[in-house]
Design a protein that fits this description.
Layout: H1 16-23, H2 49-58, H3 61-65, H4 84-101, H5 106-115, H6 124-134, H7 143-154, H8 168-175, H9 189-212, H10 218-221, H11 225-235, H12 243-273, H13 288-306, H14 309-331, H15 338-347, H16 349-359, H17 362-373
Helix pairs in contact: 2-5, 4-5, 4-9, 4-12, 5-8, 5-9, 6-14, 6-16, 9-12, 9-13, 11-12, 14-16, 14-17, 15-16
């Protein structure tokens, strides 16, 4: 679906097709090859389909709410650490860096990255686990699946159709995140880039936030081989750094090492195949030694940070509140917004309540709990 060129035969504006022909590799996803949208729309004169996806995502209510949703740490712990929104922007930045080096479609990568966590409920993975338990009889809850619900049903745009009407590439790319273990064919390379960037991002920023919030020390981190590698690289350039500067330098090295590794692995494969052989498959991401080092770092973060007593306490409170609200809204349907009351008639009350709870920011969820359900036991 090519963008229409300007009407003047001597135009100076570059069309999307012209730009992509000059910049993208043969193995990239071209805008002209898009599978289109569920509801057909005319092409835009100067924005490609994936640029339009990006803009629709950025201007959606659900995207703005990411600023009020915790990534790992809550607002009570300060204002330095990442929110779900800042995490999303960091993923998009790293993903575009990888995509540009590989000459993939940056517009599609950006849209996928900005969209990838839009379905997260309040209170991070603690909130997701609580909703999954609440909705167990209804098939459970997945933030990746809920993102598709947002895009196809819950968001409201100007027009006769529900949802954002995103391209099939973005929707299908998000769908690969729902059941990753059941994939038989590798997804689009742009989708794989976002997946790799997501992993790189949270490894780096969770390390940064954990040290800044004094949940772990730099000395404890130095026991992890990937951090040791970072410190060696830092030491080769600087003699001594203040702790706060060293922390930031470690974050920089964590990102640089991983991005460089991913690109080098891809380059090695490209030199052999150029992705032309349909029987050859390649997954963008860490391989061999770095993959093992990442696993070691993530195990450290899980045991020392994600399972930190303070976070476990916050997690328990959040889950108890969400469970109480899940039951409470079903008993007091009148407290639901009108659209979710109407939605309950089509998809059932439990699922509609779950969708409403998942849409909330941390602060709004706490406010609603305090206003309507505080009399319910929190344990």
């Amino acid at each position: 679906m090519n963008a229409h060129p300007p009407s003047s035969p001597n135009h100076h504006l570059q069309t999307i097709a012209e730009r992509e022909q000059k910049l993208l590799a043969s193995y990239a996803t071209f805008s002209s090859q898009t599978k289109g949208r569920k509801y057909a729309e005319p092409d835009h004169p100067y924005r490609g389909p994936f640029q339009r996806d990006r803009d629709r995502i950025i201007h959606s209510s659900a995207f703005r709410r990411l600023n009020g949703k915790m990534q790992v740490f809550t607002g009570e712990m300060g204002d330095y650490h990442r929110t779900r929104l800042t995490h999303t922007h960091e993923v998009a930045s790293i993903a575009r860096t990888i995509g540009r080096a590989l000459r993939l479609n940056e517009d599609l990568i950006e849209a996928l990255a900005l969209f990838h966590d839009i379905g997260h409920p309040p209170f991070g993975h603690a909130g997701e686990d609580a909703l999954n338990l609440c909705l167990e009889a209804e098939g459970g809850f997945s933030h990746n699946q809920y993102a598709l619900t947002i895009a196809e049903e819950l968001e409201i745009r100007d027009g006769p159709h529900p949802g954002l009407n995103l391209s099939r590439e973005v929707l299908e790319g998000q769908a690969t995140r729902v059941e990753k273990d059941k994939q038989t064919v590798p997804p689009l390379l742009e989708v794989q880039v976002v997946e790799a960037a997501d992993s790189i991002t949270y490894d780096a920023h969770d390390t940064d936030d954990a040290v800044k919030l004094e949940l772990v020390t730099l000395e404890e981190l130095a026991e992890v081989s990937l951090i040791q590698h970072c410190l060696e690289r830092i030491g080769s350039r600087f003699h001594e750094l203040a702790p706060n500067i060293q922390r930031r330098a470690i974050v920089h090295e964590l990102i640089d090492i991983q991005v460089s590794h991913v690109l080098q692995a891809a380059e090695t494969f490209l030199q052999k195949s150029n992705w032309q052989d349909p029987d050859e498959t390649f997954r963008i991401g860490p391989v061999e030694q770095l993959a093992q080092q990442k696993k070691e770092l993530e195990q450290f973060l899980k045991s020392r940070v994600y399972h930190h007593p303070h976070l476990l306490e916050t997690r328990e409170i959040a889950q108890q509140r969400l469970q109480a609200m899940f039951q409470g809204y079903q008993e007091r349907v009148d407290l639901l917004p009108t659209r979710f009351q109407e939605r309950a008639e089509n998809i059932g009350l439990p699922r509609s309540v779950g969708d409403y709870l998942a849409s909330m920011t941390d602060r709004y969820c706490n406010q609603q709990f305090s206003q309507f359900f505080a009399n319910r036991s929190e344990g």
